[in-house]
Write the structure tokens for this entry.
Amino acid sequence: MRGLVLALLIGTTAATPALAQFAPEQRRGQREQARLERAERLERAAQRRAQAGESDLAPVDEQQPSRPAIDRAIERGRASTAAEQPRPRLDQRRGGSPDSVANWRREQREQMRAGRPGELGERLARRRVTPPAEARPDRPAPAPRTAARRSGWPRWQSSWHDDRRYNWRDHRRRYGSLYRLGYYFDPFGWGYRRYGIGWRLWPSYYGSSYWLSDPFMYRLPYAPSPYKWVRYWDDALLVDTFTGEVVDVAHDFFW
């Protein structure tokens, strides 16, 4: 039994160099056969073109893509080229300079501030809230039910205006982009009114969507609950959220 195993091992070892030598020869033969078949296809294609009266100076491979496939490739190339082109800027789409776009935004903002419906105001009108029947822009809102829970809270001190840490005007000159918050959504559509300390707002004007979550980012002092800094058009108002009363104000705060 051992002799038979040894004989098989010796035979396999001896055949391995021969197989290794035969593999490159086989690959070369396959490549040569493929080259001959390609030459025959080219020759047949040239003969057909000559019979059809065409020039055979540039033989064409039989495996070349058909005309519809070429047309589709051209269309894909045109589409990709168009997609790579840069999109026109906002001022180019409006047919003006960057200043004209800024002027358009400024005009829309002024129209909304004055209560006149502009292009942007018409879009936002669909989102407005219907004010209560007794609500008027020239009258303060009545005290809400939560005003009864206001007793016992400390009163707000406005001495922060003299503190250099809260010099928001100098801070705005250095970091003006922080104070550009975009368009203001007037929930009742009344337009801007210069409210002062003691005015009571309707709850729709000091909801959580109007809160300034980080007042010190704008160099405003932090306020304890229930006070909240809210944005009202370009003003920053400190509102007692229990009563709706404005207890502090910074006019012309935002751009």
Summary: The mean pLDDT is 74. Residues 139-250 form a domain with the Nuclear Transport Factor 2; Chain: A, fold (CATH 3.10.450.160).
